[in-house]
Amino acid sequence: MAEIVVALDLPTRRQALALVDSLPGLRWVKIGPTLFLEGGPQLLEELKERKLKIFLDMKWHDIPHQVAGAAAAAASAGVDLVTVHTLGGLQMMRAAATAADPMHVVGVTVLTSHTPASYSEALGQGGEADLQGEVARLARRAMDAGLDGVVASPLEIGVVRPIVGPGAWIVVPGIRPVGTDPGDQRRTAEPGEAIRAGATHLVVGRPITQAREPRAVFEVLCEAAT
Ligand code: C5P
Fold first, then answer.
1. Which residue, among 44, 45, 24, 26, has the nearest Cα to 35 in the 3D structure?
2. What is the rounded CA–CA span in Å between residue 223 and residue 218?
3. pLDDT tens, residue by residue, 115-128
């Protein structure tokens, strides 16, 4: 059993609410910076009125004081889950976890858009990074800092679960039902595979937002998740 989190990667509050209202049984939504800048706190309130759980995915990576302030503000706005980059360091993650309580915080390990070569290049190294080793290292740091879990690609769930333990959240983007376009995602899997591997939350954006029939895709995902 996993939660389906619909990533509302749409440009306006109006479009986001129209999608939300077309998906019966929806429990979780994810808001990123694009939509939050347009919809603002008003959108958070409108989603709370609909009794939805809100994942505010801003992937914070800043000095500890700033990240703690952002986490506290999100918690008081009724947000249920936020993200920080594990590469922001232990002190930053600890500050977020402390300020956020009881809201959940998960750590982004390696973005699902990275390949071994693009990650090495971002770190200023040549060759191809060992992404599984890097995800494992960052997941350990996230748990040491007291986070509630991590964000990882479907291909790394098996590596991450023994590190984070049975109760932690593993939030998994890069979900692609059979036949859907991967877009810019590089490390993807079908929903069933991610659930069997131990994902607790499947984040799904374009396969729903760009579908001709978003409700039909959502229903198939919900069935796979139960
Ligand atoms: O459209 P798609 O299903 O690829 O959307 C995936 C969502 O998950 C996006 O909103 C993206 O910001 C988010 N995400 C990701 N990789 C991460 C963390 C979050 O793709 N490591």
1. 44
2. 9
3. 999 999 999 998 99
Q: Which domains does the chain have, with CATH numbers?
A: 3-225 (3.20.20.70)
Active site residue 59: yes
d(CA 83, CA 105): 6
The CA-atom distances, in angstroms, between 147 and each of 55, 81, 100, 136, 169 are: 15, 11, 10, 15, 9
pLDDT tens column, 51-61: 999 999 999 99
Site of tokens 């990882």: 152
List Cβ neighbours of 225 (8 Å cut-off, separation of 6 or more).
1, 2, 3, 4, 191, 195, 202
Q: What is the DSSP letter of 127?
A: S
Residues with CB under 6 A from ligand 1: 7, 9, 30, 32, 57, 108, 111-112, 151, 173-174, 183, 185, 203-207
Query: From the candidates 30, 48, 51, 59, which is the catalytic residue?
Result: 59
